[in-house]
Amino acid sequence: MSKKLFIETLGCAMNVRDTEHMIAELNQKEPYELTEELSQADLIIINTCSVREKPVAKLFSEIGLFNKHKKEGAKIGVAGCTASHLGEEIIKRAPSVDFVLGARNVSKITQVVDKKHAVEVSTDYDESTYAFGEYRTNPFKAMVNISIGCDKSCTFCIVPHTRGDEISIPSDLLVQEITKAVDSGAKEVMLLGQNVNNYGRRFGSSDEKIDFTGLLQKISKIEGLERIRFTSPHPLHMDDAFLEEFASNPKICKQIHVPLQSGSTALLKAMKRGYSKEWFLNRCEKIRTLCPEATISTDIIVGFPGESESDFEDTMDVLEKVRFEQMFSFKYSPRPYTEAAEFENQIDDAIAGERLSRLQKRHTQILDEIMDAQLGVVHKVYFDELKPGNRAAGRSDDGKLVFVEGSEELLGKIVDVQITKTSRGALDGVVITE
Ligand code: SAH
Ligand code: F3S
After folding, report:
1. pLDDT at res. 362
2. Which pLDDT value is given to residue 205?
C-alpha cells in the first residue's frame, strides 16, 4: 500500500509549483497518495511563505496542532521560504519537525525525508534545482518555472534572501517541458518567476541570448499550446517590445500583473523599485491603448515606513486612474534581512490599517462596476475543473473565473460563454457554442 502525503501550500504561485515538484520527486522514490486527512498521513509537509510576518507566527502553532493529531510515526517537514530564513531554528523551537527544506532546495526532498532533523537551506546555485518534476495538480494546465530566485533588492522584501540569486532556465529546456505537458493534455501554461520579464539576464551554464519577449515568441510556436500566462512581471522591465508582444500575440492571455507597491515616487525610491509613479501610469496607459480588452492586476503595500497622507493619496490616485481589475493589498510588515525593517520612520499600525481599509473599500466599488459591466459579454472560457451540482469552472482569456452548468465533456475545451450573472469574485454563464 502506498504511503499517504498531506501537504499544505501557503503563499505564491511559485510555492504551488514547488509543491508539485516535491510530490513528483517523492513519487520517483516510492509512490505517495495525497490525502486531505492529516491523521492518515505518513508524511506531512507545510510549504511556507515568509513575505509577511503573520503566516510565520502561525507556523509554530500549526506544527503543534499537526503534531498532536498526526498518526504515530508520521513525519513532519517544513519547506519553502520560512524554512529558508529560519533554518535550524525551526527544529530548535519545534523538535517534532523532522526536516527543514528551503525554497531553493525542493528538488532535494528525497534526500532529507528519511533523515531525522535534516536541514537543507542553501541558496547556492545548483543545477538540480531546476530538474523538472513530472507531476501536475491539474492535467489541463501546466506551471513552469522560467527563472528561480530574484536579483532585485526591494527594501521591504525577504524573497531574495530566501530564494537566492536569479537564474534563468535555458529556453530549450522550457520548450521541452511545455511540449511534454501539451502532449499529455494541457492547453495552457503559466510561466513562473519572481521577475519573469527579467528572463535571460543570467543563466547557470548556458550563454544563450534571449529575453522574455523572445521566450514568449519561442514558446508560442509550440503546436497545441493555446494559452500562455505568466506571473509576475516587474513594471520596470515592461519595455515597448514586451507590451507589443503581449498585445499582439494571440496565444498570450490578456491578463497582466503590474505590481505597483506604492503610487508615491518618493516611496518607490525608498522601496528601491526603480520606477516612478509616471512610469507606472505610462505603462498601464500603454497596455490599455494597445490592448483594451486586457485586465490589469496589482499588489499594493500600505504603511511602508515614511508613508505620509500625501504619499498614500498618490496610491489612491493610481487606483483611480488605472482601475485595476484585481488588487492584492497588504499592510507593510517588517521582515528580517530587509533594509526597510531598519528604517526609523515606521508607520503606526492604526494609521496603516485605516489606509488599507480606505484603499480596499474604493477598490471594491471599482470592482463591482467592472463586474456588473460583464453582463451579456461573451468570453472564451477554458474549462478545467468540475464543481458539485453539475457545474464546470474555467477562466476567461482575461482571467475571470466563470461557472456554467456542465460536466466532463466540457473539460479541456475552450468554449464561448455568455455571462448571465455577475458577482464580485466570479461570473455565471451559458455555453453558446461547442
Ligand atoms: N516579485 C514577486 C514579489 C513576491 S512578494 C512578485 O511579483 O510576485 C509578493 C507581494 O507581497 C509583493 O508584490 C508585495 O506587494 C508583498 N510584500 C512583499 N514583502 C512585503 C512586506 N514586507 N510587507 C507587506 N507586503 C509585502
Ligand atoms: Fe521581492 Fe522585489 Fe524580487 S518584491 S521578489 S525583491 S522584485
Report:
1. 98
2. 82
Nearest-CA neighbor of 336 among 150, 164, 157, 163? 157
DSSP code at position 28: H
153 alpha carbon – ligand 2 mean position (Å): 7
Residues 37 and 115 in one domain: yes
**Domain match, 332 and 368 both:** yes
Q: Is residue 211 part of a domain?
A: yes
How many angstroms is it from 223 CA to the middle of ligand 2?
A: 33
Summarised one tens digit per residue, pLDDT across range 258-293 is 999 999 999 999 999 999 999 999 999 999 999 999
- Closest residue by Cα to atom 2, ligand 2, is 154
How far the first Cα of the chain sits from its last, in Å, is 42
Cα 131 to Cα 133: distance, rounded to the nearest angstrom: 7
The CATH number linked to 419 is: 2.40.50.140
- Condensed to tens digits (0 to 9), the pLDDT of residues 181-206 reads 999 999 999 999 999 999 999 998 88
Q: Which residues contact 174 (CB under 8 A, 6 or more apart)?
A: 144, 146, 191, 215, 219
Number of domains in the chain: 3
Q: Does 319 lie in the same domain as 174?
A: yes
CATH (domain of 250):
3.80.30.20
Q: Among 161, 298, 299, which residue has the most ligand 1 atoms within 8 Å of its CB, making it the best to mutate?
A: 299
DSSP β-ladder status, 3-9 and 32-34: parallel
Maximum Cα interatomic distance, the chain, rounded to a whole number of Å:
63
What are the 10-residue block averages of pLDDT along the chain, 434 residues in total? 94 93 92 96 97 89 96 96 95 96 92 94 70 82 94 97 93 94 96 96 90 98 98 97 98 98 98 98 98 98 98 98 98 97 97 98 98 98 96 98 96 97 97 79
Q: What are phi and psi of 287, to 5 degrees?
A: -60, -45
What distance in angstroms lies between residue 339's CA and the mean position of ligand 1's atoms?
Answer: 14
Domain boundaries, position 87: 3-120
**SS3 per residue for 199-223:** CCCCECCCCCCCCHHHHHHHHCCCC
- Determine whether the shortest distance from the Cβ of 261 to ligand 2 is under 6 A: no
The annotation places the binding site at 12, 49, 81, 150, 154, 157
Indicate the pTM of the whole model.
Answer: 0.96
Give how far Cα 372 sits from Cα of 170, 376, 399, 424, Å.
43, 10, 16, 8
